[in-house]
Amino acid sequence: MVKAGSRDQVATLAAHALRQVYLPRIASCIQALSPGQIWWRPNAASNSVGNLVLHLTGNVRQWIISGLGGAPDVRERDREFNERGPVPRRTLVGRLHKTVDEACHVLDKLSPEEMARVHTIQRFKVTGTDAACHVAEHFSHHAGQIILLTKMLTGRDTKFTHLPGERKRKSRNLPAL
């Protein structure tokens, strides 16, 4: 668990990870895919990029906007995975952007006391700090899946990574975590 004095830093880092690191990468991946590729599933046990975006939207809304921010929890988790599309790319990206913006607004407003308080989210008893860490980690996990699917489907490097000391190449210039 994080020390009490750094709880507000956790909220700031989680908001940064969602808004500045992973959201731009996911949006870039969706732009690189055709509508058919967005909804392609490798097999019946796997999810499409579209399903993962719907899932992230639902998860962030439930854990941060509802769980920490107090908005009504209207999530229908099964629908996130049952959707077969095509939900237009503009709609997918717009919903995810709106949700991340709302979540970051909630995280920015939470006091250290609110971050330390225990909340019940999905029947789990978690502190606000635990919830913020969970959402950032969960978002990262699925962003990685979306990036992998994009590389598989397009056969192209996303150019998201530039390591120190590497020769400069044309990159998307996205911030590191």
Detailed description of the structure:
With 177 residues, the protein is mainly alpha-helical. The chain has a single domain, classed as Four Helix Bundle (Hemerythrin (Met), subunit A). The chain has seven helices and two strands; from the N terminus they run H-H-H-H-H-H-E-E-H. It has helices at 7-32, 35-38, 49-66, 77-82, 89-109, 112-116, 128-154; strands spanning 118-121, 124-127. The chain has a two-stranded antiparallel ribbon. A hairpin with a 2-residue loop joins strand 1 (118-121) and strand 2 (124-127). Helix 1 (7-32) packs parallel to helix 7, helix 3 packs parallel to helix 5 (89-109) and helix 3 runs antiparallel to helix 7 (128-154). The radius of gyration is 17 Å and the shape is globular. The two termini are 20 Å apart. The mean pLDDT is 91.
How are the SSEs placed, and which strands pair?
Layout lengths: L6 H26 L2 H4 L10 H18 L10 H6 L6 H21 L2 H5 L1 E4 L2 E4 H27 L23
Antiparallel strand pairs: 1-2
Helix pairs in contact: 1-5, 1-7, 3-5, 3-7
